[in-house]
Fold this sequence. Notes:
Elements: H1 3-15, E1 21-23, E2 31-33, E3 35-40, E4 54-60, E5 64-71, E6 73-76, E7 80-86, E8 89-94, E9 101-103, E10 112-115, E11 120-121
Parallel strand pairs: 1-5, 6-10, 9-11
Antiparallel strand pairs: 2-9, 3-4, 3-8, 4-5, 7-8
Amino acid sequence: MTHKTKEMIKLLNNKYGNKFIFMDENLKDKTTIHSLFCFVSDERRLHDSGYPFIRIFGEIENNRLIDLGWHDHFITKCQTNTDSYGKNIFHIMPWSSKIEFWIRGNNFWYSTFKINEDGELT
Length: 122
């Protein structure tokens, strides 16, 4: 786990009252993600379009966070509820009780992070 990742998790745990444990594990098909946490990265490191990268973590069972990578943007094709945790941190949750976020596979190091209509994260 990098120093920056530790800082992000510490911020969630201390300042915002969460009790997360970071897990660096391989994900299996259809792993359920309860919510997403998005951090705007350091503005000194920009992607090709000139904007800072977004670091995304997924919350899975037992208050564990998994790293879903660095992205230059994300797209949602289903309804979500987004709360701001303050300075550069956003909490994204499914809006409908019929939709859960879930993932297929474990490779999330692409530029576009997408939430499909059915809740699949690609």
